């Protein structure tokens, strides 16, 4: 997914340049409380190398005009440690990859707080089962990961507030990982358990 950073950053700049009248996320009463959505990281599945097989479904509920809670079902796979920075020459480099790959799947609980117009912050707490596989596809073992995302973004309503997109930037942190095979853990030790800047682009429909 990291190879799509230039396109995602360009999309962020484009959406932030929309007129302010199109970016006012304050809903008129009564407003639509439920939404379903996903992430534009789905386009990462078009990659021909290290394809993430990424899938995500979000279901959210607006408690108040400023407070939203949601659940995200997420799965993806990867063959390099998550802590390798996007700009590092070690990312996707031979020798820094795992002796196979990891498939993560889990549910994230999300709290989103709107502060001014469409500007918001959010905390995502993903509880994921990790399935380790060797290069020949043989399963190794299972583990657990707590994956935290601290996000700041902007809610852009579209088509009479029926649809929306949310460009954002985030910091990610995975403080808990259990039952890792030693061969995988050895590849992760040189790298931190966090990334400070990661672009995001969520979208959805309200009802």
Structural write-up:
By secondary structure, the protein is mainly beta. Residues 1-29 have low confidence and may be disordered. The chain has two helices and nine strands, in the order αββββββββαβ. The protein has an eight-stranded antiparallel beta barrel with strand order 1-2-3-4-5-6-8-9. The longest helix has 12 residues, at 5-16.
Compact summary:
This protein has 207 residues and is mainly beta. It is 9% helix and 52% strand.
Poorly predicted runs of 5 or more residues: 1-29
Q: State the end-to-end CA separation.
A: 30 Å
Strand order of the largest sheet: 1-2-3-4-5-6-8-9
Tell me, rounded to a whole number, the average pLDDT.
87
Descriptive key words:
mainly beta
Question: Which secondary structure elements does this structure contain, and how are they paired or packed?
Answer:
Elements lengths: L4 H12 L17 E6 L15 E8 L4 E12 L21 E17 L2 E16 L4 E16 L1 E3 L4 E16 L3 H7 L5 E13 L1
Antiparallel strand pairs: 1-2, 1-9, 2-3, 3-4, 4-5, 5-6, 6-8, 7-8, 8-9
